[in-house]
Amino acid sequence: MIWWYHVKVTLENVPLEAWNEDGVKLILGDACIFDKLDSHMTSREIRESSQFLTCLVWMETPDVLPKAMEYWYFVAKAGQAMDILDLPSPTRIPPTPPMGKFGDKAILIHLVG
């Protein structure tokens, strides 16, 4: 029999672009199953004034929750090949390696008791 834990997780230093369900899933990965964002986190004023994002998740093993995550920023379509006009689609300009910016602070992940 498998026991599942419904736990509250707080993320610290999350960029505003990731304050949504998809962002939380990307940060937490396969360690848990996303349930919902804390209802207090939905207003824009709260997001801009707070550095903590809280959500509820389901976990089989809380020990596998990551403790931190570092990240990079990339411009839209960085590293993607570009089509050449008036030529068949397999003809593309090879992409240059994407140039990114390292995140200012690591995202810290806390399991709330």
Question: How would you characterize this protein structure?
Answer:
The protein is mainly β and 113 residues long. It has one domain. The chain is 12% helix and 33% strand. It has two helices and nine strands; from the N terminus they run βαβαβββββββ. The strands form three sheets. The protein has a five-stranded antiparallel β-sheet with strand order 2-3-1-9-4, covered by helices on one side. The radius of gyration is 18 Å and the shape is elongated. The two termini are 24 Å apart. The mean pLDDT is 83. It comes from Miscanthus lutarioriparius. This is DUF4283 domain-containing protein.
Keywords:
DUF4283 domain-containing protein, 12% helix, five-stranded antiparallel beta sheet, mainly beta, two-stranded antiparallel ribbon, 2 helices, 113 residues, Sex_diff_modulator
Helix and strand arrangement:
Elements: E1 5-12, H1 21-28, E2 33-37, H2 44-49, E3 52-59, E4 68-69, E5 72-73, E6 82-83, E7 92-93, E8 101-102, E9 107-112
Antiparallel strand pairs: 1-3, 1-9, 2-3, 4-9, 5-8, 6-7
Proportion of residues in β-strands: 25-35%
Overall pLDDT: 83
Indicate the radius of gyration in whole angstroms.
18 Å
Structural class: mainly beta
Protein name: DUF4283 domain-containing protein
InterPro entries: Sex_diff_modulator (IPR053253)
Organism: Miscanthus lutarioriparius
